[in-house]
Amino acid sequence: MKRIALLIVLGVIVLSGCNHDMIEPDGTRDIVVFFTPQSLSASLLKSEANADEKTINEILIFGVDAAENYVVQDFTLIENPSLTGGITLTEVSRHVKWLYAIANPAETIKNAPTPATISDLMALTFDLSSSPEPPFVMSGKGQVVNEQAAKIELVRTVAKIEITAIENFLIQKITVTNTPNEGYVFKQESVTAQTTTTYVEAYDEPKTSAIIYVAENSNTTTPTMFTVTGLFDGESVDYVIDFKQGVNQVIIERNKHYQIGVTAITHSEGSFTISIPDWDDVETDVVLMPTPQSPTNPYKDGIKILAIGNSFSEDVMRYMFDMLQQLGVNPSGITLMTAWISGGTLQQHAANIGVSSAANLERRVFTENGGQSGYDVTGQSLLSMIKEQPWDIITLQQQSTASGLPDWENHWDGLDALIEYVNLHATNPSMRLGWHMTWASPTGNWIYGSPPNLPYLNQIDMFTKICEAVQSQILTAPPKFDFVIPTGTAFQNARSLSHFGDNLNNTLLPADIHANNLGSYIGAATWIAKITGLDISKLLPDYPADKHYPPNRTISADDIVMISNSVNAAISNPFSITYP
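and the corresponding structure tokens:
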């Protein structure tokens, strides 16, 4: 099969050049392959502990047809890839709709005949007749989106077993029985037909913790077993871990980290507990618990957010309900509300402290499908809104045009009063107070070059002054806020990509300062990532963000990649533009 050259691209790839115009008459085009943060976080490639677990030396990529029946192309082996950005595959057949990737392919895989069908790919195995050693084979697949890009999450093809001895027990040897002697490269629905083997891990010195790696095994008739040999009060003992939780056999899955705590009771008896988190890129301590635990999501049951601000807070909340729901937050527990003043400044909100019916204050609630309520319902009380819910999060923001001018017409004078008022009346003792850092206006906006009150020279100058204002007014000692949401920086990062450009604002009015639907989506993603820590790269593509300012845009899979890169870069570097 013809092998096609690859261009490795450092940094995040800009897709503006990857459009239908690139498709040549012979039926090929270029495709950018991105690898998701789950498989390529900083600690995956750089880790002080168990660094060899996370090394990626080589990658093989195969192109598969839309029906996933045939392998259309295979691509040259990539050695020592830089995966923090993307890889461009050149001259990819238009018949290729899926990409299958194998990282750290074993020699048997590299020397095997080129797969012709998807069944050939699924049949690929690697030898596990003895204890497997890192770096491990990793695999994943991704769909080609809009003829331009694919996103692949690589996962390890083996499981990590960490056994810890508790109290007066030391480990000398671990014997593994009924473990498959081959591992499948790609995930199988069931793993029942493999030949099993036995191997032994012995240690020169007794130890309190040991790590071994095994292939996945879903065969409950012949389950993988572990016998731990060690010393209890100086005498040799053997404890068999039957790998059950209750009456159910634990199935060993790839990319899982099985944490087992073994406690010696007598010389003839022992007990153990098992926890089974995902095999994270970050090293974790052993957690002993009787049942498997799902990844921690502190907001899975719901989240309540009150934004005290203006239309810029409204912009970022517009799609947040749907996005939170997509990321696993219970929709019945989501409440998103703004205490809204048109063009409101901190000073104006502070003026409503203690006012029972503020003529300029509106209560606006945001619901699923971009829905909202509360427009033109004025005469609200700031106090009643603060007390309405046990808010998890309350945010403040400055008026957009004043956000880069710390001393402009005393508009920052209300900051301390608002902070004190919120902290005094918030009913949730765990409430966190955040600052919303807004965005610079689009190029050509009326505010540029309009001294003396608005001395912004251009968009970059306004962004710089916003950063300086936040650093001088918000990042004080002692801290007044629990966190800063760098929405403005996420905007500027996204604008640096020709994939988006300076197209994040409303086009209904010339050079409007408000976010359009794409800008609103980016703003919501920034809030979610910063407040919850949820992985925004898992947002669902083809989201119809069409209920806001034009131009209307369906948020595609490659949009989500770019948005995720821009937002995560902003959170890492909130006061500088990153060209992600």
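(Above: one complete record from the training split.) Residues 1-25, 37-49, 281-295 have pLDDT under 50 and may be disordered.
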